[in-house]
Specification:
alpha/beta; four-stranded antiparallel β-sheet; 15 helices
Length: 418
């Protein structure tokens, strides 16, 4: 909700400038803002352009902007979704200072560990209804999980890693964000069948552009790419699909689904030109419906039936529709971008097990996620990206939250491990 081309001061005062000032400077705002900053132990350059700030700094501007307007109740909706571990700690310190000064904070999240750390009371919602409200000292993480999904979590099943041939080989790849600006710079790594390679990093450090380039959506300006041993540097999305690539985009609304079309129509995308869905150039709707119903049952998609517009489903069921469509083709390589963003913990557990099944059955998964817990739980190896470059690749036994957090800020670089 910030205007990137304006300064911090201009964003804070937007629509509510210092009284009695027709023309004003950042210093005119300081008398109002500095006491707020001091009370929260924050520092802030009021003259800095917002588009030069980190995600955590932008979030602090939002908080000060809210307090400047006299708010006493602050609602934070998934505030840690794009923060590094260190930025999360800073946010939690700010929240604690706010509550000590009699501000009320409503903290909306699906991350149970964060609820246990920061909340005084917790209210669990399921299907739009309140399940229970309790003091945080009276519940455990398992209690909250049960409140949210109505059952205990089953956990992740994982087989011993058995590596196969190279599924993905990326060598000295550059990808442009704009005509003159690189989003990915001289990136090299490989991914073998039978493993999950996680890519961690604060959003906006080239992960999305990399995923698009690997799937033929965005051109590779330099370097080479191989998928399952075949040169794929300049292939289209359809050609990548035919090689055995499954793609789960980061934004299911804009990139993953046609919201006005039915669940069935969304599920047959990608196989609608092939037998048995299409015969002699004609779409066989009876076969298409049967295929869709099979996927709906197999992937536990909650929908009245296959004719329901996919836009009417919950976020978790939209995501499972994409997973079902992509994984039902049995791809050898799955590029999964933010696969559990905005979904409940029950759906998250289901999606994690689906991705692990790909790996256990000899496929390869490139997991791009801003959720460190997800990266650490699923990955056999982790590569950290910062400003379009690799900060190194860690094996599972080397991964720690503090080490990943440091690498995500670019302050610690590891030698890549194949």
């Amino acid at each position: 909700m910030l205007a990137g081309d304006l300064t911090v001061a201009e964003n804070i005062a937007l629509g509510m400038p210092p009284k009695g000032k027709f023309l004003w400077r950042a210093s005119d705002l300081a008398n109002r803002v500095e006491p707020l900053l001091d009370s929260l132990n924050m520092s802030m350059d009021l003259n800095a352009k917002v588009n030069t700030l980190t995600v955590g700094e932008k979030q602090r501007v939002e908080i000060i902007k809210t307090l400047y307007r006299g708010a006493k109740i602050i609602i934070m909706d998934e505030p840690t979704a794009t923060l590094t571990p260190m930025e999360v700690e800073e946010l939690f310190n700010t929240i604690r200072m706010l509550t000590k000064q009699d501000y009320t904070v409503i903290f909306i999240t699906h991350k149970i560990r964060e609820v246990m750390r920061i909340a005084d009371h917790v209210t669990a919602l399921r299907m739009g209804e309140t399940v229970r409200t309790a003091r945080i000292c009276d519940v455990t993480e398992q209690d909250i999980a049960h409140m949210m999904i109505g059952r205990d979590l089953r956990g992740l099943t994982r087989k011993e890693k058995r590596l196969g041939d190279a599924a993905l080989e990326v060598e000295n790849v550059d990808v442009l964000k704009s005509r003159k600006r690189k989003a990915v710079k001289d990136l090299s790594f490989s991914l073998r069948c039978g493993e999950i390679l996680g890519i961690a990093g604060v959003e906006g450090n080239g992960q999305s552009e990399l995923a698009e380039a690997l799937n033929g959506i965005r051109p590779i300006s330099r370097g080479s790419l191989k998928i399952l041993g075949k040169t794929a540097t300049h292939l289209t999305t359809g050609e990548c699909l035919s090689l055995g690539v499954g793609y789960i985009p980061s934004d299911r609304i804009k990139e993953g689904l046609a919201l006005r079309m039915s669940v069935m129509e969304n599920l047959i995308v990608g196989v609608h030109r092939a037998k048995p869905v299409r015969k002699r150039g004609i779409l066989n709707w009876a076969t298409a419906r049967a295929c869709a119903e099979e996927i709906i049952e197999k992937f536990e998609i909650k929908t009245p039936d296959g004719s329901e517009p996919v836009g009417n489903l919950s976020g978790g069921n939209m995501q499972k529709t994409i997973l079902g469509r992509e994984l039902n083709r049995k791809p050898t390589l799955v590029i999964a971008c933010q696969p559990t963003r905005g979904v409940d913990i029950g759906s998250t557990e289901h999606i994690h097990n689906l991705l692990m099944d790909v790996r256990d059955n000899g496929g390869a998964v490139l997991l791009i996620s801003s959720e460190l817990d997800e990266i650490m739980e699923l990955s056999d190896r982790v590569m950290v990206m910062y400003e379009g470059e690799s900060m190194g690749i860690l094996n599972a036994d080397e991964i720690s939250e503090s080490k990943l957090g440091s690498m995500m800020f670019g302050s610690h670089k590891e030698e890549a491990k194949e």
